[in-house]
Structures are given as structure tokens and as C-alpha cells.
Amino acid sequence: MAAPDLETIVSLAKRRGFVFPSSEIYGGFASTYDWGPLGVELKRNIRDAWWNSMTKERDDVVGLDAALITNPQVWVGSGHVSNFTDPLVDCRTCKQRFRADHIEEGDYPEIAKQEDGSYSCPRGRCDFTDSRQFNLMFETQVGVVDDASNKAYLPPETAQGIFVNFENVQTSMRKKLPFGIAQTRVSFRNEITPGRWVFRTLEFEQMEMEYFCLPPADREDPAEYLTLHREWIDIRLRWYIDALGIDERALRLRDHSGEELSHYSAGTTDIEYKFPWGWGELEGVAARTDFDLTAHGELSGHQLTYFDEDRGEHVVPWVIEPAAGLSRTAAVTMLDAYSDEPDEKGDKRTVMKFLPAIAPIKVAVLPLSRNEKLLPMAKRVFDVVRPEWNSQFDDTQSIGRRYRRQDEIGTPLCVTVDFDTVGEEGSVGDDSVTIRERDSQAQVRVPIGGLVDVLRERLGSR
Ligand code: ATP
User: Fold this and answer.
1) Whole-angstrom Cα distance, residue 433 to residue 445?
2) What's the pTM value of the predicted model, to 2 decimals?
3) Over residues 437-441, mean pLDDT
4) Which superfamily, per CATH, for 6-71+144-334?
């Protein structure tokens, strides 16, 4: 089961410390959000899962952390200064802003496009501008003099930092083709229309990898290259299912149509999720050919090539790019993990069924009450667990309410310290605790001496 609608998740995320509207005390700011204490852990776990699967578990991919603010020529070479635009239409009367392509796709049924290309609304009150291209890059100024020569850009994607470092990485790491360079980082886009929650924001994290391979012998028939592209599409789709636990039925692949494709692309496939409002993109896997390396080589005068020993010549590698949104993926992980179901007593409980590796908190240690014998023992148990996993200690309210709270933030296991652990008046405790499992609500008793081993068996290492 997934969340029935977006509002349910937005409200849980705020109430439980995953995501807050940004600068709320000043009335907020469109399309910006702050990640709270649990959201930051969730994102970190997803980022780590991606990083592990892309770099640590592979011999052919290495990491990079390129500067955010770079020589502005990087964005000229990449084509972003001239092409990274969306078509924009303003209404002079109601001061609203629309994307022309979204009007044409029917997102605003109240606006009609006329034969002469102008726009109108049925009430005739709106006064629309013509559609014009709007560049999505944020500009900034480097240095104290405010003139055009100091103009720089905030990066709208992480990929270009990878392309301009191709030679540095290849030679310093002595990499042979095929190999990849991976990077996770914040990107900025001056999105024209406000997005839904954290799915489209001005500032968001991306996880991108450029996989460089030998160019095909025949540009017009790059069969092996296209096979490699399909392999990466499959690897990336499986990652959402296996590493994040996303329901397979809520994922699909969508190949870009000829019209959607950039002129240099040999194919792009989106991995899409079934949001409560319809299918939408989580990641694009693009076959970018040699476009970027060639473009940077031409503009900078520094050719970005690789010496192919078999052919005995320098070649420009071709590239496959899986580009995923971390913030969007974290939100999808929340949507998909959500479940309403009966608790032990048959009352409704909300559970976030995160996989243990993704859950922000792995273990909660809960003394049955604040009794003077229970508290010190529970603290001791917490001290045993805490160095191993991200854990919480909670001694407030009834045990039932504390279980509900942990269910709602997706903590896979609760460890309860009760009077059997410490012994009642005159009796000796059994030095054991109860482990309560989030999804089945099953409880097992475990000696404190063996607790870490049992938890490790169920959670994996931290
Ligand atoms: P969209 O069509 O949704 O605008 P895109 O095709 O422009 O996305 P890419 O440039 O391929 O996106 O970026 C890769 C990924 O980065 C996207 O699949 C998405 O997960 C994420 N992403 C892109 N723009 C945003 C944004 N404004 N806010 C949050 N995530 C984003």
C-alpha cells in the first residue's frame, strides 16, 4: 500500500520531522523546503545506497565532488546558456505564470491556444504575453564588481563537473574504458511554475553518473552502445526495487519519443513512478553519445579524448548517463512506504515500511515506564545499541503510543526494557529484553548479552 494522496505524506513529514516548508515564519518561499532531522537521515541512507551500488560495489566507477561555482564557459560549452530554457507565458492581468508546453499538454484546460499562436481564457479577462524562452539557470556574481564579466551560474545539474574532469580522473586513476564517474550534489533550477511539494523545487540533490565507453565503429549503427544503454536502464530500475524497496508495480520505463529527444541523444528512457496524480519521472537514463566531451573540447581548445590502443588513435568516448533526483526519490520512498493497518488491538496504525537500510532510525529503546529500576537499565541497553545503529531513546507516554510513533517514522525494531528484565521487588531479573518487530508486530525475548548479534542479524550492519 502507498499513501492515498500527497497531503497525507506532507502532513506526516512535517509532524514527524522529515520535511518542513522553508522559511515558514516569514510566510514560506515557493518551491523551497527544509529537510528535518529524520529527512536528513533518510536522504543520507538513500545517497549511501546509491553510492555503494554505483562505486563501492563496482570496479569500474569512481567518485567525484566537483565545485558548484565554475568558470561560466562550462555552461556555454554544455549548451545550457543557450538551450536550458522552458517556454514561458505570463498573464498581465492575474500575474500568473505558465509553461507554454504545459498549456499545450492540457494541464491548464482554462487556457486555449489560438490559431495565430496567442493564448486566451474563456472569460476574456486574461491578457497573455507571447510565449518566450526563459533560462532556468540562476545567475550569480563572483567578486565585488557587479558587471557581466563577473557573471557565474549555479549548476542546474551535476554532469558538467564530471565531463570537464574526464581527463583528470582517467589519467590519475589510470582507468581504461569503459568506466564511470559518479557524483551526488545539489543542483539549482529557476523553475517557472511551482512544483508539487519536494518533487519540483528550486534547489534539489541529484545523483548522477557518466559512464564512458569506446565509440562505436559505425555512428549510424551503435548496436553495442545501445545494448549497454539497456543494461544500465535495467540496473537502475532494479536499484529502486532492491535497494529502496519500492513496489515494482508502481515503477515503469518510458522511452522518450523522437520529438522529446535532444538532437545529439541516441535514446533516453525515464524510470517513472506512479504518483497519486499519475506517472512521473524519477530518473532519466540518457545515451548522450560524444556530445558533451566534444563540445567542451571544441570550446576550450583542450580535446577530451582517450587513447585507444587497439585502434592506435585518440577517440572521444561515448557516454551513458543515469541521472536521478535524490530529493524526489526520498519523497517517493516515503509515499511508497506508507501503510495504514490495524495494530495489536485492532486500532488503526500508520506504518512507514522502510527497508532497514533506508529507515532513518533503526532501533528505539523503550523502558516500559520511568520506574527508577527500569530507567538506568534501559539507558545501559541504549549505550550498547547506540554505537552500532542510529537509535532513539524514548521514555515518554504509554508504551502503545511510543510503538505508534516509531511505526510512523518507520523504525524497524523496538527494544523494550520491562520488569522481567530488572526483576520486581524481591525477585531477580532475567537480563533479557523484548524485541518488537515493526511490520509483523511480533515480539521475542532476547538476553541483553546477545542483543547486538540479534539486531545485526535483522538489520544488517549500520
Ligand atoms: P522533469 O522533466 O521532471 O523536469 P528533467 O527531465 O528536467 O525532469 P533531469 O534533468 O533528467 O530532469 O534530472 C534528473 C532528475 O533530477 C530528475 O529525474 C528528477 O528526479 C530530478 N529533478 C529534476 N528537476 C528537479 C527539480 N526541480 N526538483 C526536484 N528534482 C528534480
Assistant:
1) 6
2) 0.94
3) 95
4) Bira Bifunctional Protein; Domain 2 (3.30.930.10)
